[in-house]
Design a protein that fits this description.
The chain is an all-alpha fold. It is built from 14 helices and three strands. The protein has one domain: Alpha/alpha barrel (Glycosyltransferase). α3 packs parallel to α14, α4 runs antiparallel to α6 and α6 runs antiparallel to α7. 49% of the residues are buried. Pfam families: Glyco_hydro_9 (PF00759). This is Endoglucanase.
C-alpha cells in the first residue's frame, strides 16, 4: 500500500487508542517544508537551504517563446508536470490557510515561500491568451537518463492546452491553486494575492469554456457567490455526487470529507520501526529514487554528467550522497516490507504531492500532539 493511500486512511480513520511512540512533530513539519527546496527548478535564491542543489532549466519555455523558468520537479525526475504541481500548490496553500496558525512563525514563512515558488511559475503558464502551459520536458527522454537537473541536456519540450486541444481539468486545478494561494498569501502581500486571483480568473475562464472538472477555491478566495451558484448548478460535472474513495493530484473529492487523525505509521510507528520521511528519526530511507539526491552534487563534482553518466550511481548499493531532507517516499507494500532500493521507484520515489497534504497535518499536531 502506498503512503499516499496510507495517509488517506489515517485521515479517515478514528484516532488510535494509544500512541506507541512520542514524535517531534515540529521537527517533522520543518523537514516536510524543507523538502520543497530540493525540488526547485530555475534560478535558486540566496537563502536556498538545500545547498547541494544548483540552478537548473534556466531556458525552460524558450522553444515556445515564453519564460517558464521556475516551479518544481514533482518527483525524482526532471520534468515539470503542471497538473501535480497545481495540486501540490493547492494542498500547500490549504495547509497554510487551515493550519498556518499552528505553525511556528519561521515555518509559516517557509511554507508561504514554498507556495510562492509554485505560483510564480503557474502565473507564467498563463502568459498567452486562451492557452495554459502544462508541462516542460519530454518524459520519455528524461526517464531514459539519470542525470542531475543542473546538467540536463534532454529536450525541454513545452506542452500546453488550447481551444483545439483542451484540458479543462488541469486549467481548473491551476485556477484552484492560484485562488487558494491568494488566500494563503494575502496577509503577507495583498498586491500579489490580487495578481494570483486575476490569474485564477483567467484559468477558470479557460476551464469553463472547455468544460471538465472544477473546484470551489475561486469562490472562497473571491467571496463571489456567482461561483457558488456555478458549483451548485454543475454538481454532477464537478463530481459532487461521486462515491470517491481515493485522493490524489487528479482527484481530491475525498479531501472534502476528511478529518485529521494521527500519522502513527509514516513517522515510524510501523512494523519495520522505520520512518518514511528522509532525515526524520533514527532509521529512514537512504537510497531514494531521485536523480539529484543520488548523484554527487555540482559542488562536490563540478564536471558535467551526461544522460547515461549517472547509471553507475543509480546501480550503486551505496546510500545517496545528498539527503533530500523531508522527502516522503512511496512506502512499503501491503506486507509492510521496504527494501530501500532506489530502483524500486514505486516504493522509493518521493513526490511533492505526497508531501503537500502532510504539511497541514503536521502543523495541526505541532499544536495538538496528544490528540
Amino acid at each position: 500500500m502506498s503512503l499516499s493511500a496510507v495517509l488517506l486512511l489515517l485521515l479517515l480513520s478514528p484516532p488510535p487508542p494509544a500512541i506507541t511512540a512520542a514524535h517531534d512533530y515540529a521537527d517533522a513539519l520543518t523537514k516536510s517544508i524543507l523538502f520543497f527546496e530540493g525540488q526547485r527548478s530555475g534560478r535558486l535564491p540566496p537563502d536556498q537551504r538545500a545547498n547541494w542543489r544548483g540552478d537548473s532549466a534556466l531556458s525552460d519555455g524558450s522553444s515556445a517563446g515564453v519564460d517558464l523558468q521556475g516551479g518544481y520537479y514533482d518527483a525524482g525526475d526532471n520534468v515539470k508536470f503542471g497538473f501535480p504541481m497545481a495540486f501540490t500548490t493547492t494542498m500547500l496553500a490549504w495547509s497554510v490557510i487551515e493550519f498556518g496558525e499552528f505553525m511556528p512563525s519561521g515555518e509559516l514563512r517557509n511554507a508561504a515561500a514554498a507556495v510562492r515558488w509554485a505560483t510564480d511559475y503557474l502565473l507564467k503558464t498563463l502568459a498567452l491568451p486562451d492557452r495554459v502551459f502544462i508541462q516542460v520536458g519530454d518524459p520519455t527522454k528524461d526517464h531514459n537518463c539519470w542525470e542531475r537537473p543542473e546538467d540536463m541536456d534532454t529536450e525541454r519540450t513545452v506542452y500546453g492546452v488550447s481551444p483545439e486541444k483542451p484540458g479543462s481539468d488541469v486549467a481548473g486545478e491551476t485556477a484552484a491553486a492560484l485562488s487558494a494561494a491568494a488566500m494563503a498569501l494575502r496577509p503577507i502581500d495583498g498586491e500579489y494575492a490580487d495578481e494570483l486571483l486575476r490569474g485564477s480568473f483567467r484559468a477558470f475562464e479557460f476551464a469553463d469554456k472547455h468544460r471538465g472538472a472544477y473546484t470551489a477555491w475561486l469562490r472562497r478566495a473571491s467571496q463571489n457567490d456567482t461561483f457558488l451558484s456555478y458549483i451548485q448548478n454543475n454538481g454532477k460535472t464537478l463530481g459532487a455526487d461521486d462515491n470517491i474513495n481515493e485522493f490524489g493530484w487528479d482527484n481530491k473529492h475525498a479531501g472534502l470529507n476528511v478529518l485529521v487523525s494521527k500519522v502513527d505509521y509514516i513517522l515510524g510507528d510501523n512494523p519495520a520501526k522505520m520512518s518514511y520521511m528522509v532525515g526524520y528519526g533514527d532509521r529512514f530511507p537512504l537510497r531514494i529514487h531521485h536523480r539529484g539526491s543520488s548523484l554527487p552534487s555540482i559542488t562536490s563534482h563540478p564536471q558535467f554528467l551526461a544522460c547515461k553518466d549517472g547509471s553507475v550511481y543509480f546501480n550503486s548499493p551505496n546510500p545517496n550522497p545528498n539527503l533530500l531532507i523531508g522527502a516522503i517516499v512511496g512506502g512499503p507494500g501491503e506486507d509492510d516490507v521496504y527494501d530501500d532500493d532506489r530502483a524500486d521507484f514505486r516504493k522509493s520515489e518521493p513526490t511533492t504531492y505526497i508531501n503537500a497534504p502532510l504539511v497541514g497535518v503536521l502543523a495541526y499536531f505541532v499544536a495538538n500532539p496528544d490528540i
